Amino acid sequence: MNREAVTGILLRTLLAIAAMVSAYYLCVLVFPLTYPFLIGGLIAMTVEPAVRWLENRARFPRWAGVTLSLIILVGGSLSLLIYLVSRIVMELTNLAEYLPQFFNQMNQYLLDTFIRDNGELIEMIHTIQNYMENNPQQSSEILTSIRENLSLVANKGTQFITDILAGIGSFLGNLPYYATVLIFIILAAFFIGIDWPRLKGRFLPLIPGRVSQTGHLVIRDLKKALFGFLRAQLTLISITGVIVWIGLSLLGVEYALTLALITGALDLLPYLGVGTVMVPWVAYLMLTGNFRLGLGIAVLYVVILVVRQTLEPKLVATNIGISPLLTLVALFIGLKLFGVFGLILGPVITVLLLVLYRVGVFHDLWNYIVHGKSKLSTPGSETEQ
Q1: Is there a contact between 257 and 87 (Cβ–Cβ < 8 Å)?
Q2: Transmembrane ranges (predicted)?
Q3: Rounded CA separation 336/343 (Å)
């Protein structure tokens, strides 16, 4: 490879990197100013099939179809959100008051079960006690450290719940601002929905043919892969949450709704899932002698596993999902980069990158860097296949 070719590759590489970095920072700059309209556009796209059905089958004017669809979607979502938030606030408040008492009971049970009824441990404790009596300063330091650690565990649990409640309180405090943004989103969805056919007819011809073709493939695969993946996962965790809620309510467990929401969220974790909560809970109930509730939770866990394993192959086809290992990697990287929201963004970005790979975007970029624009524009080339 001659020097001129190497120079061209380096220049095109720098140009591609500069374009991607510029696009990233442009999105970072523009998104805070346009996100209500972007969200409104997504909502308009979501309700578009229903609007077309109302137009063609029910003979609704387009403005009436858009209005009815938005009322059903936004009204139903807000009603569900208000109900869930009110229930979670009540149950978390009660749980925060009960948590210190629970830790005290658990500490007492562990003391009674594993220490007082175990001769070898008692003998070891006597030896330690004799040592402590001869070294009162160290005894005081150890006891103080134990109390502090136990108190720290209880305080961490209580603080976690308190932080959630504080976050909900902050959300309610900023409710006027959020309500204003919501109004902009609904209005944007309404006007975009009304003008959707005209907007498509005006802007689609402005897009270059190659970009339009690639964009069409990306959107098609995104609908199949990304939206299908999200829809399948939301369906699965919703089914899990409902089963847990019904099961815990029948078993008479307090805070059933909150526990169901937590369990449903944990169901997103590959391999672990609901077992993260259910298995330790069953073990604790069996150790404490509450065999009835422990057996009930174990049966509930088995029911969840059977239902999920039966439904998952039907809801998540192999060509729209990602492997459990890749999901786990995406969850961890998303958590490190974006915090809690990374648990959602990680898999979503992974699916998006897979879609871009499948439609040949990265292949096109590589051909551009190595061969230049002429390679991309050659009819019948690899990128067109």
Answers
A1: yes
A2: 63-85, 175-194, 229-248, 268-286, 293-311, 331-357
A3: 9
Residue 138 has pLDDT above 80, yes or no: no
Q: What is the pLDDT of residues 221-247, one digit of tens each?
A: 677 666 776 777 778 888 888 898 898
